[in-house]
Amino acid sequence: MEALFKIIPAAIGIYLFFRIWGRARAAKIQQPAALVESAEAAVGTAPVEATGSSLAEKLRDLSGRIEPFAQDAAHPGEVAGHKDFKIARDVFASPDTPLDIVLNYATGASFSLSYPALAALALRSDKQQACERIFAHFEHLPPWGMYFALLYFDALETRPPLGGLILRWAGEYWAGNSWITTIFRDAFGRRSQLGEVQTFGEDATPPNPERAEAVRSFLIAADHPSARLLLNELDELQRHYIDYAFLNSFGRLWDHTSLASLIIAPDDWKAALNEAPQLVKRKPARSLIVVGEALTGKTTLLRLLAHRLIGDGWQVFEAGGAELMAGQQWFGQLEERIRRVAGEVTVEKKLVWYIPDLLQIARSGMHSGQSASILEQIMPAMTSGQIVVWTEASPAALTRLLQMQPGLRNRLELARLAACRTGFKDLDPLRVFAGSGALQAPVGSRRAWRGPRLAPAMSAST
What distances in angstroms separate CA 300 from CA 191, 254, 353, 391, one per listed residue? Predict the structure, then answer.
């Protein structure tokens, strides 16, 4: 009996000891968690301050109930019908909740609150103000987030086109993601019911080849009439894409700033300067060769012509035989570069190809595996008007050129410049042709320039 009275107090003492020790340990564990939560609020990872602690706690509680249901749902529409989802959506849709706070949650990392925040934007009176930010964040949304974002865009008076979203954000993985293709297919259907014809938008610019391929693959996977319309538009856009990185890797585009300084031309040149720019607008377009002795202003005339075309969006690409052949060591490399240039520098893309040494490319590019010169390889494109070539030559060089390639008589328009000795001794030619690298005449020179004569085609006696 005495032993029992000794054991009972000892057991009670041990029980009280472990209970007190357990409470102290739990308090130590909870303290770091509280510190972490306060630190997150301090750096702005959770928008607590602006909404008040009670609202933040309410949203956190709703998030805990939405998340397990959303993880087991088969479609985002099921989540949208959940009771707690609707409560969270109404909290975000309330006028008492600032738009910035809603956007913080809509673009945040917690999907269980991001989805109702996105859904709430469609119900707010200030929803249009959020369009730009949601559009910019679209690529970071998971597929179900895209679903609610697209519903939000549908509710706007000024809606971004679905094609614009796809052109801007389509990733390589989109085509292989059945959720994204299904979500956009449904969005195409809703927009069609609204009477909207899909387009990439008025300000759409041609995408680079990598993005164009991602967009094309996704539109094919979406398999919707609106997607097929966008595929046709994508083909049209790509016809105007200019691969500047490729062109600048061996040639150069004429600087429009320096061209702008060429604002004065001799009166005798005005007829040719008015007529020659129309050559690129003919059907088919025509190429041009300027013929004259040294220092007669051949390059200057072409630069003045380029300046006339700048206002219509035209550019001039310069690459001669040396640039084309630079670094091309293996069979097929040069031919591939020529093929790509002929596909890039086209009339459709409003590019003119300036070749300063047409005689050289008529003699270059032939080897044991290629019997055609560089000129012969691009002549079919010149004949069809796909590309426009501007070039220059002396009379002697033109004679040799026509002996080698008689067919050029029907492919080139001719502008002839001839030097003569007249007055102008008080006229500074460096002021007349400011910025022209071709002009070498000294100040006060008596050399003047006779106006170019533009011939429709070269005769056999040229």
Answer: 54, 13, 16, 12
